[in-house]
Amino acid sequence: MREHSFILKGNICYSETKNHLSVTEQGYLVCCEGISRGVYPVIPDEYRNLPVKDYGDRLIIPGMTDLHIHAPQYPFRGIGMDLELLEWLNTHTFPEESRYSDLEYAEKAYRIFVEDLKKSGSTRAVIFGTIHLPATEFLMKQLDASGLSTYVGKVNMDQNCTDALRETDALESLESTAAWLRETSGKYSNARPILTPRFAPTCSEPLLEGLGKLQKEYGLPVQSHLSENLSEIQWVQELFPWSACYGNVYEHYGLFGKEAKTVMAHCVHSSDLEVELMKNNGVYVAHCPQSNTNLSSGIAPIRRYLDAGIPVGLGTDIAGGTNMSMFRCMADAVGVSKLYWRLIDQEKKPLTMEEAFYLATRGGGSFFGKVGSFENGYELDALVLDDSGIRTAKELNTKERLERYIYLAEEGGRLAGKYVNGREILLS
Ligand code: GUN
Ligand code: FE
Predict the structure, then answer these.
(1) Which is a GO BP term held by this UniProt record (predicted)?
(2) I need a surface site. Which of 62, 203, 212, 217 has the fewest CB within 10 A?
(3) Which CATH class is domain 6-62+372-424?
(4) Alpha carbon of 142 to those of 36, 132, 187, 427: distances in Å?
(5) Is 158 helix (H, G, I), strand (E, B) or coil?
(6) Quick check: helix, strand or coil at residue 202?
(7) CA-based max dimension of the chain
(8) What is the CATH number of domain 64-368?
């Protein structure tokens, strides 16, 4: 009972609903065997014997989920930001990802990635690897050891990319994916496999069909990209002329939410039909505002998705996105939603700070189950935020301090504690 059972004391904030932030100043967050038992102004009698860790005046919030990030792209973040998606993939992304056939390079790069992710505000992440088995297995091993909770995908791609990154054919791609699943399924408690067709253009129809079968066999979740860029959408229509929309390609092969828990990155330019499919199938949208800005992709209509009841979380999409910080991601999500409202559709009100916070915590967290809240029964992921380095003469209340941290984390914020599933992650 006592292992991973404790109480955290501090100024506790979490999303009760999309629009309501619960704030308990100098409250007690109770964790029993890794599960939250709620937040209280006074310790309830039944928990009186648990050890209390007092974080003083600091903020305590749920851990955040990065719903879309490419581990192998971490080395070139911040470089080559002057191209659109398809050119960017060919010029920067595919050549860099080809390097992961060299395990020595992969180990060096993935060590840095995992160390930085561990120190970030993300407690959970849904991650793309590359096509390479040894490198992807190394990534999973490192992530598992970090204590963070992740889904990791060995990427599938058998057409329309550089030779060095193309799997020989559908059969080879499927066999290597099956070998990877045999090797890694159930092996790690924190790093679990997720099927990862890169995106429709780089996957032949036999490959997509085989992945649909593997999904059923292993009961796996799925991640991919969807309707990110206008040229990409047109290309998908040319490659799959029978499809009613881009999402229909994945749907046709059982890779779009109905059979498997599925997350699609971007959905910037989804058609009405595609939105309907996403809604009916419970497909998650990973909203990646910084990437959509960097690659001039556009602005995803997140208000529309929220109104439709489509599940949404936030992603950094390294290296389309430059920055691994989910705080920055929240600020960007609010920022681009204002431009959408001002420039594109005056009916679609901008996201509020409460909504962005919900997306980063509960919205994305729900992809992992009961994650992203401190309500009774949720897996306890928590961050302790020290904002004493962000100087001001003004008195702020707790909610204002949280909002300011979202915008100024990089200026003077410091992560003073991090917990995943009730286990403390050592940050130094
Ligand atoms: N679409 C296919 N591959 C990628 C990728 O690596 N990054 C982004 N942003 N979009 C993609
Ligand atoms: Fe991506």
Answers:
(1) guanine metabolic process
(2) 217
(3) mainly beta
(4) 27, 16, 13, 15
(5) coil
(6) helix
(7) 65
(8) 3.20.20.140
Q: Is the CB of 89 under 6 A from ligand 1?
A: yes
Mutate to test the pocket of ligand 1, among 198, 249, 250 (most ligand atoms within 8 A of CB): 198
- Express each pLDDT in 356-394 by its tens digit: 999 999 999 999 999 999 999 999 999 999 999 999 999
Asked if residues 80 and 33 have their Cβ atoms less than 8 Å apart, the reply is no
67, 165, 199: residue to mutate for ligand 1 pocket, most atoms within 8 A of CB: 199
- The Cα 44–Cα 396 span in angstroms is 29
pTM (two decimals) = 0.98
CB 203 within 8 A of CB 158: yes
Rounded Cα–Cα distance for residues 111 and 106 (Å): 8
Alpha-carbon distance of 162 to 58, in angstroms, equals: 49
d(CA 335, CA 48): 44
Q: Are 32 and 5 in contact (CB under 8 A)?
A: yes
Question: Is beta strand 414-420 parallel, antiparallel or unpaired with respect to 423-424?
Answer: antiparallel
Residues 6+ apart with CB under 8 A from 345: 301
User: Distance (Å, rounded) from C-alpha 5 to C-alpha 61?
Assistant: 18
Q: Assess whether the C-beta atom of 68 lies below 6 angstroms from ligand 1.
A: no
Q: Which of 244, 240, 252 is CA-nearest to residue 270?
A: 244
Domain ranges of the chain: 6-62+372-424, 64-368
| CA proximity to 125, closest of 313, 282, 370 | 313
The model's pLDDT over 310-345, given as tens digits with 9 standing for 90+, comes to 999 999 999 999 999 999 999 999 999 999 999 999
267 lines ligand 1 (CB under 6 A): no
